[in-house]
Amino acid sequence: MSTTGRRAERRPGERTAAPVAGRARPADRPGVHTGAHPVVPPAVHHAALVARDRLLRAGVVRDTAAVRHVVAFLVATVATVLLTRALLALAGFPQIGGGGLHVAHVLWGGLLMALAVVLMLSYVGPTLRPLASVLGGVGFGLFVDEIGKFVTADNDYFFAPTPAMIYVVVAVLVLVMELVHGRRAHQPAEYLAVAADRLTAAMAGGLTDAGRAEVEDLLHRAGDEPGAAELRRALAAVPHDDVTVPDPVRALVLRLDTALRAAVARPWARYVVSGAVVLVAAQAVAVGVGVLGRSIDVVPWVGVVVLVGVAGTVACAVLAIMAGRTASVQGAVWMRRAVLVSLLISQPFVFRALEWAAVAGLVVDLVAFGLLEVVLRDGAQRARELAETADDDGAPQSR
User: CA nearest 76: which of 272, 293, 296, 249?
Assistant: First the structure.
């Protein structure tokens, strides 16, 4: 019998309820399956948020590629300072302007930093971040190169402590990077957010095989975070793209990482690193003795600080040699501390004494630091793999 135009007949014992305005349909109720995908109850999302720290709840998420971008910024900064000083010296320190005007290169630095900020604020996704990091680094290098003018009453560009001041500024930025990115591992929610960031640009431009593999790895690390399943479905819908957007910063970092890994694999690597640390320490000792002996014309306490830093470097290096006999990773930890003491205590004051002649020692320290970072990173990776294997072996077998 047709029910068109009449109410459907009720079965015996069946109760009906009149429609209520505003009542949610089954498809709108939390936790009700509405076909292919269930709707997650709000309480589940709230519990996931409560478990996160305050920064994540505020939406402050660290990019997994942030260290690469910050390092590019710092390298561009240092390279710009050194290149600017060299070119100005070769040109006889000319001044652009006339009639009482001087267009200092700090102005060009400000313009480049502003351009980097505008790029970062104008576009979504990660595509332009490498370019912004380099532009910002060049701009900051042009800015900080003139720090001597900002701290002297007579605008003295050649203020003697300028190299040490620039060194300290860069060292503080490195410490900030280490504090933000090197002390805590990324949380699953951060991997999820970074995967969403990568997909942002991919929605418009597609994904190469390498880009898709990166997003898949990020989603794997995100695990069962709320929203991960939805992003996996979104990833499947992103079209394939054969054209790779040039990223010279990433390419350079990968080449450097490959070179450092190849160097670390050599049996003589540990001796080269140890020799480099000793060489830089010997240079610092010579500077400290020269300052105290008055052959280098700076205040005597600079020499004292340099020698104290060298003593700390030597002590850490001795502990590294002792620890390395039984545990290579622990030895690398102490040698890294030796290099850090040199970078943060000795080298700033060596720059104060010798100005730009101390660049060679800085480069040697940085190369040694990079090699030790590779050793420690590989050691941490092996430790994680062993821990995961132990967890898998200890997990109860399902029948």
Answer: 249
